[in-house]
Every structure is written in C-alpha cells, then in structure tokens.
C-alpha cells in the first residue's frame, strides 16, 4: 500500500464520491528539465505523473515550460527561447497517447478538457512560466500557442524585458524596479496574447505589473499559482487591492500549495503548511470576492507540497476539506476547474474576434 492510499482511507466515502464525480484541474505543475522520467510511470521523484493523477482523480493539469530568469540580453534570450520551445515540444511528444493502461491528451480548450473528462482520459494543458521565454520576439507567442500553450506567466523571480517581478534578482543586478511595472514590449505582448488566446498569468509579477496587466489586458488576468498577502506577507502574494482589481477585471487567483506563501517562514519553523492553512487562503478570497474568483493549484514539482497533499494522488483531501468547510457541490466544482475553464472560454471568445 502506498502512502497516498493510506491518506485516502482517512477520507470519508462521501467526499471520495463527490471528488470522483468532479472535473478537477490543477492550474500549475512543473515538468522536470532536462526531460527525464516517464509521465506514464509512477515515479518516486515526481509529485505528478499520470498514475498519481489517475489515483487522485485529477482530471487535468496545466504543465508548464518553466524558464529560470537569466540575463536580459541577446544571449540570454536565445537560450531561453530554445528551452521554451524544447520543453513545449517535449510535453507534446511525451505527455499524450496511450501506454501502461493510461490515456492522456493535450487539451487546448475548455470543451476539449470536458470531453477528456467524459472519456475518462487525462487532460494535459501546456503553459509557459516566464515571459523571458520569448525574449524580445513577440512572434514567438504564436509559436507557443501553436505548441498548445494556454498561458504565459509574465515573469518569474527577476525582472525581464516584459515586466518587473515581485522578487527582483540581485544576482542579475536587478534594482527594485526596471520598468515601473510593464514595459512597452510587455504591453505589446499582452495585446498579442489576448489576440492568440493565451491567458496572462500575473503570478510572480510585481504589484505594479499586476495592476497594470489587469488594466490593459482585454481578457481577465489570472494568477495560476499565488496566495493571499493579508494572510502571509510575501512579495509574491496578492494584497487586498490586487484581489479587488482581479475581481474588477473578472480574473482569477488559483491558490497554490507552497508553504512559504501560505504561512510566514518563522511560524512554519521548517514544517510544511497544511491543507487547512491552504484552504484559509481560498476562504479569504471567497469572503472578499466571491466563489467565482478562486481556484486550486499545487505548484507540484516546482516547490509546492502540503502536509496532507503530498502529491497528485492525494487530491481528494482538498475536496474533503472544502466539504468540511461547508462548500456545496457547485462551489467545489467551480474551485476545482469550473472557474478556470470559464476563463479559457472567455480568452477563446476574445481571440476569435
Ligand atoms: Zn512559479
């Protein structure tokens, strides 16, 4: 018996039944790079692979090409562009098809994700984490979209050519701000992303970048993996004014399972945050904005992991906790994917214009 099965046995039959009936989507999962580990096999190293998704009844995952921030120059951009394309190509090459009794499909639209759910097939939604991956070449956004990407996170840690990050990288010589939020190129990139149907992900960005992006993007912006600053004062988290701006534009925050964003490090003292502490952030957004502005992400294989949600196989624990907190089926379904799918549909409607 594996540990996640043991965890499962603590979950009520009622919660398991509800969980299994839902379309569940995790909006931010990293992939190992250089490419290694077969996603069709249960590996001890990966927190998300297809067997764990299946066991945890996780329908869909946004798997990202994560590009660490490097120098903002021609050489750095060239390497970042090549890695982004290489990672998206690897997702397409190795994360779909039928093997080991499992079927996975690259899905690009809400309708395709819903069809995969009905077909009992795992849905893989590609994304790009860090606008650094396009360097200064706007035309690459169309290439990312052609390779199935549905969102681009404007920055990671460290400023890039598009925007300021919430966490300047001193090793790269970053000052507190480089552009005062978005650069002219960043604004151009957002317009192109809107045109292509790429969601604008404001996780990791500075406060000014986020507020400006919410303003200029014709499609609501999303934080695919972020937490609430009122509960944990981390520069990466969204404060109340940012949450309000998110609601004003019709956007979405997908609470993420990174301990250091959920509780202050000093308080954690080395332990991992719990599922309950995670849900405190979700509750906060529901109370302030309403249930249609919040969802779920793990950041598994990119730093995310909770006490009680160790890997994708343990996903029913979240549904159980949401039930304990009194949420009904329609709310839990919205958190687990309904809200994110609605945003994808909105992006597609805007892109078609
Ligand atoms: Zn991230």
UniProtKB/TrEMBL annotation:
It comes from the Bacteria. It holds the Pfam family Peptidase_M19. Signal peptide: none annotated. This is Membrane dipeptidase. It comes from Acetobacter musti. The lineage of its organism: Bacteria, Pseudomonadati, Pseudomonadota, Alphaproteobacteria, Acetobacterales.
């Amino acid at each position: 018996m594996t540990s996640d099965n043991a965890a499962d046995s603590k979950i009520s039959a009622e919660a398991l039944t509800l969980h299994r009936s839902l379309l569940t989507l995790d909006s931010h999962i990293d992939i190992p790079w250089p490419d290694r580990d077969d996603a069709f096999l249960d590996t001890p190293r990966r927190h998300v692979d297809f067997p764990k998704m299946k066991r945890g009844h996780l329908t869909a995952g946004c798997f990202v090409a994560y590009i660490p921030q490097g120098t903002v120059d021609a050489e750095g951009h060239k390497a970042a562009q090549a890695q982004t394309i290489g990672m998206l190509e690897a997702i397409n090459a190795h994360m779909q098809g039928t093997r080991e009794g499992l079927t996975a499909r690259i899905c690009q639209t809400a309708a395709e994700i819903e069809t995969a759910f009905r077909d009992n097939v795992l849905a893989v939604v590609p994304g790009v984490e860090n606008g650094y991956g396009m360097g200064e070449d706007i035309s690459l956004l169309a290439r990312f979209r052609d390779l199935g990407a549905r969102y681009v996170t404007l920055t990671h840690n460290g400023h890039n050519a598009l925007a300021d990050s919430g966490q300047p990288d001193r090793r790269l010589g970053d000052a507190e701000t480089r552009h005062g939020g978005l650069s002219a190129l960043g604004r151009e990139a957002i317009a192109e992303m809107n045109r292509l149907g790429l969601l604008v992900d404001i996780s990791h960005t500075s406060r000014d970048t986020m507020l400006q992006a919410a303003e200029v993007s014709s499609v609501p912006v999303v934080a695919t993996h972020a937490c609430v600053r009122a509960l944990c004062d981390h520069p990466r988290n969204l404060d109340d004014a940012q949450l309000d701006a998110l609601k004003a534009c019709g956007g979405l925050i997908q609470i993420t399972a990174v301990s250091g964003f959920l509780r202050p490090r000093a308080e954690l003292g080395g332990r991992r945050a719990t599922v309950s502490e995670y849900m405190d952030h979700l509750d906060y957004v529901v109370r302030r904005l309403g249930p249609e502005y919040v969802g779920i992400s793990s950041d598994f294989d990119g730093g995310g992991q909770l006490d009680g949600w160790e890997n994708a196989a343990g996903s029913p624990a979240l549904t159980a906790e949401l039930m304990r907190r009194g949420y009904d089926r329609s709310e839990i379904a919205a958190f687990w994917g309904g809200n994110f799918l609605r945003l994808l549909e909105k992006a597609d409607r805007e892109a078609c214009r």
